[in-house]
């Protein structure tokens, strides 16, 4: 297979509105375009208010839902056309950190099980060591967490464990849907720092979904702004935020609290 790591072309999703339902259709996403090269790790932020289509875009890009229009291509091949081995490689290279970490862990299994299954399915070499390294990267001690059940973790710990699980498989791209939504400001800075390190040091690209433009400003190379499923603006993150062209982007930028400090605070280092 050849071609960019991942591309979305003319991607659209309409919910409902079939012959058997009386509900009118909801166009959640329209003409969405996205691209990640294989040889250049970038952080692309996808921003927009609640309901603008961000999670829908993530689900389509990850192949968790089928598009109504357009297609997603992995290394030049439509996701629909991937064979068994290609799909497995896609599943390894493109990892998800989902918006709802409560839904992502099976409540009946200990954390260890989640990591064991991932390591076994994808043939991770020296799994014990790899798991410990992945935990260390997100600032957690594996021995303290592996035997716990998901409900014995805080929301922030769960989000960090999802990032650790994604890391275990050495992905090329992580689709992170509001990965810092459940954690407090100090920890948020350290997660953003982890994302930056993974990008710069490990060469991992991110589709970083957020409705918080100040974090996009700090960590993203590019910014795509969605409004009611439409892409209203895209470009280098700082350019878009410093001089927004579309009225909706202007509203988003103006709604960031505390204008004096909003762009100046750099993420803190991880302890
Ligand atoms: N399964 C579904 N059936 C019907 N409508 C849906 C479904 N999933 C999403 N939608 C609708 O599609 C639109 C986009 O939803 P989406 O979850 O992508 O928004 P979002 O930008 O991720 O919002 P948030 O910031 O709240 O997470 C919304 O109007 C939502 O109500
Ligand atoms: Mg969402």
List keywords for this structure.
271 residues, alpha/beta, Rossmann fold, 6-stranded mixed β-sheet, 4-stranded antiparallel β-sheet, 11 helices, 10 strands, globular, disordered C terminus, binds adenosine-5'-triphosphate, binds magnesium ion
Task: Describe, in plain words, how this protein is organized in 3D.
The longest helix has 18 residues, at 185-202. The chain is an alpha/beta fold. The chain has a domain at 6-106 and 172-254: 3-Layer(aba) Sandwich (Rossmann fold). Strand 7 (173-177), helix 8 and strand 8 (205-210) form a beta-alpha-beta unit. It is globular and about 50 Å long. Helix 5 crosses helix 7. The protein has helices spanning 54-61, 84-93, 101-104, 111-121, 127-137, 142-145, 155-168, 185-202, 213-219, 237-242, 247-254, and strands at 6-15, 26-36, 43-47, 69-74, 77-78, 94-97, 173-177, 205-210, 222-227, 230-236. Helix content is 37%, strand content 23%. It contains 11 helices and 10 strands. The model is unreliable at 265-271 (pLDDT under 50). It has a 6-stranded mixed sheet, sandwiched between helices. Strands 2-1-4-5 form a 4-stranded antiparallel sheet, covered by helices on one side. Bound molecules: adenosine-5'-triphosphate and magnesium ion. Adenosine-5'-triphosphate (ATP) binds at residues 15-16, 26, 28, 48, 50-56, 99, 211.
């Amino acid at each position: 297979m050849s071609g960019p790591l991942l591309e979305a072309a003319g991607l659209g999703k309409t919910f409902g509105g079939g012959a058997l339902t009386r509900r009118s259709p909801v166009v959640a996403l329209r003409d969405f375009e996205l691209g990640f090269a294989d040889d250049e790790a970038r952080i692309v932020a996808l921003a927009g208010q609640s309901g603008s289509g961000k999670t829908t875009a993530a689900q389509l890009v990850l192949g968790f839902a089928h598009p109504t229009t357009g297609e997603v291509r992995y290394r030049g091949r439509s996701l629909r056309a991937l064979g068994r081995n290609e799909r497995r490689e896609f599943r390894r290279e493109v990892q998800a950190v989902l918006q709802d970490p409560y839904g992502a862990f099976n409540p009946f299994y200990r954390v260890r099980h989640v990591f064991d299954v991932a390591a076994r399915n994808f043939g991770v070499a020296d799994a014990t060591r790899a798991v410990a390294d992945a935990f260390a990267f997100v600032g957690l001690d594996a021995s303290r967490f592996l035997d716990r059940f998901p409900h014995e973790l805080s929301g922030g710990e769960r989000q960090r464990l999802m990032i650790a699980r994604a890391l275990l498989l050495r992905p090329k791209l992580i689709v992170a849907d509001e990965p810092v939504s459940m954690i407090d400001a100090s920890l948020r800075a350290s997660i953003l720092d982890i994302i930056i390190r993974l990008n710069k040091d490990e060469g991992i690209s991110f589709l970083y979904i957020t409705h918080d433009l100040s974090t996009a400003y700090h960590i993203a190379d590019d910014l795509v702004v969605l409004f009611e499923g439409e892409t209203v603006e895209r470009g280098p993150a700082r350019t878009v935020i410093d001089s927004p062209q579309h009225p909706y982007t202007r509203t988003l930028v103006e709604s960031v609290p505390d204008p004096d400090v909003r762009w100046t605070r750099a993420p803190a280092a991880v302890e």
